[in-house]
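Can anyone check this?
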Amino acid sequence: MHAGTRQTEAVIIGVGIDVVPVERFAESLTRTPGLRNRLFTAAEQRTPSGNPRTGESLAARFAAKEALAKALGAPGDLRWHDAEVTVGEHGRPHLEVRGSVAGRAAQLGVSSWHVSLSHDGGIASAVVIAEGVARGEEQP
């Protein structure tokens, strides 16, 4: 390595995991009609083909938002709509962040996200990994 250059490598800045009982979550959405719009963007509430998402799918997205908050150290000022679970190529989930979530991520040095969603046996779950770049010490 040349003098004065810095080596960089990807590091995990935070990890979050969350589980949500699907039936209880769906009951909450039914009991509190405004909750769906408070928690999810319009795009999150529909599949790419335009159909309404199932309770399992919404519960998994809620778990992802909770896991994301945990990966960021669970600050209390994050806004639900500032994190959006989107669908990428081959149905792979991605996180789009803005506003309060993007601000906190920038403070911590997060440059990329990894997210995994699952639902089975009445439980929805999500894992979120926040990744950034660690800068090495200056080399003589």
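Reply from J.R.: I decoded it. The chain is about 30% helix and 35% strand.
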